[in-house]
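Quick one: structure tokens for this chain, please?
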Amino acid sequence: MDATANAEEKSRRLVLRCYSTLASQQEVSGVQVASYLMGWPDHYTTHEFVNLFLIGIENYLQTMLLEAQLKRQRQETDTTTDIDNDDNCIETEEQFLLQPAGTNNKYVYVNTRVDYQHRSTALDNICLYDYIRLYRKKPVDARDRKQTKAQVEMRNVQSKTSQRGRPLSEREHFQVEHPQAASHINIKRIKPIVPVLLGPPVPRKDRDDTKERYCRSILALFVPWRSIQDVCGVDQTWEEAFQIRQTR
């Protein structure tokens, strides 16, 4: 038995050594070398993509719902309930991303949940999925200040028939509660991108054991919200809130 295992291991190592030798001596075309030296991509896609840690946002909403329920219960029973109790809270891990700012190879620090919650009031009716798909975050520069001023002036004009030239890229400021409200803005993308959901996948809706999380995921993605009250009532389950949205 040991002799057979040793023979198989020797054969595996021989095949691996042959593969490594062939790979190290593989010829590389001039196009590949030029692309590598110039920093060009080695693949092309029809769409651009951006990551979204949906489970972190879901856990945040679930925690806010539990806190609201405990607060209401404490008010009704006039008793003190520890909101920070381990049995009542879900671990919420905030996710931060580095994304291209769009100019001069600069990058911007992004927390999707905070950016979405404190978006401009002009974007009140946009859901999380469309917000990520249509807008990106960038540092404010002199050009942004100039175009933001022009954008406000255009909105105050009743008729836009006299507008000439290329239309301005839509820019929206964050609300003052945002920690980067003074230094960053939202700018509308020239071409929409595709959000990619990272983490646990959205479960199937026809399974009873994952029905609540399915409803929570869909509500978080496709219903505009700023607080838990916008997606789920304190006295509701996620499934009940989902069904109410469906009948509207």
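Residues 106 and 155 are 30 Å apart (CA to CA).
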